[in-house]
Design goal:
alpha+beta
Length: 289
């Protein structure tokens, strides 16, 4: 069954709703077409099922279900949860800062298409200290109040509280060690993504990336594609092009200088790759800045 949001916050290209519920027994399989579902387990226990993956959930667990991924709960016992459903589009304003964190890449895996459930997907389960978990529960209650408020600034208040929740998870949460898919390979690839965001212009290749992740090249190539959805080289190329776009728009540097700045020794090759990924030339970006 697929659920669509009927009542939600709509503003700044960001949609969100929050609700609290308790499950006992089995809960039907469902998904959310265009929304992420952040789940905070207040109390109780249950078993989450996504395709052939089964995950035991307990009070204090935190996890994120991407859009379109069908999941259900089995054998729930006083399983009380907060659900925050939101569109991720709002995060494009903050991704540059947040994606430097390993937790960000583990919380928001890049591959979020509907085929994830057919590719052995299971969310990483996070936990916080009891004090921090209490704080984000309080923030969730505050969001609910803001969404139901008609006061001036209620949308801003809800967005502010939501960002505090995400930031707390990214900064302080730890992945549960018994998470089936939270293995060393997944963590190392997440660390690589965080490192690439600041060291993208270095001379990376498949061998150096695999070595960083302490993996054999063929296994690394396969695991990276499974987790991220593109090959390591394509990911790095796209990252460099994205960094170049920002420089073309705001730095005042010329094309050759920007090519070197983002890791290309040949400005002509940079221009060809830029056109391949964007459909535009670097000079056309400079002209409109």
């Amino acid at each position: 069954m697929e659920y669509l949001l009927k009542k939600y916050l709509l503003g700044c290209d960001f949609r969100m709703t929050v609700y609290r519920c308790e499950h006992n027994g089995n809960y039907e399989q469902h998904s959310h077409k265009d929304f992420y579902e952040l789940v905070l387990v207040h109390s109780g226990k249950a078993e989450q099922v996504i395709e052939n993956n089964h995950q035991k959930l307990n009070g204090g667990d935190i996890f994120l279900i991407p859009p379109g991924v069908e999941h259900s709960y089995k054998n729930a016992e006083k399983f009380e949860i907060y659900n925050l459903l939101f569109s991720k589009s709002f995060f494009r304003y903050f991704e540059h800062d947040l994606q430097k964190s390993l937790n960000y890449h583990m919380l928001f895996p890049l591959r979020t298409d509907r085929e994830r459930s057919k590719n052995n997907f299971a969310p990483v389960i996070f936990q916080l200290t009891s004090n921090l978990f209490w704080e984000i529960e309080k923030l969730t209650n505050d969001i609910e109040q803001e969404l139901n408020s008609s006061e001036i600034g209620s949308q801003v208040g809800a967005l502010s509280d939501f960002l505090k929740i995400i930031l707390t998870i990214i900064r302080y949460a730890e992945a549960k060690q018994n998470n089936k898919l939270n293995n060393k390979n997944m963590q190392n690839i997440g660390k690589l993504l965080a490192i690439l965001d600041s060291r993208y212009k270095e001379n990376w290749d498949i061998a150096s990336m695999a070595k960083f992740c302490n993996m054999q090249i063929n296994n690394f190539r396969f695991q990276f594609k499974e987790q991220v959805g593109v090959s390591p080289i394509n990911y790095l190329m796209k990252l460099r092009i994205e960094k170049a776009i920002g420089l073309l728009q705001f730095s005042g540097m010329n094309v050759s200088e920007i090519a070197l700045e983002v890791g290309f020794s040949d400005s002509n090759y940079f221009s060809r790759q830029f056109h391949k990924y964007t459909g535009k030339t670097p000079k056309s970006i400079i002209k409109v800045r």
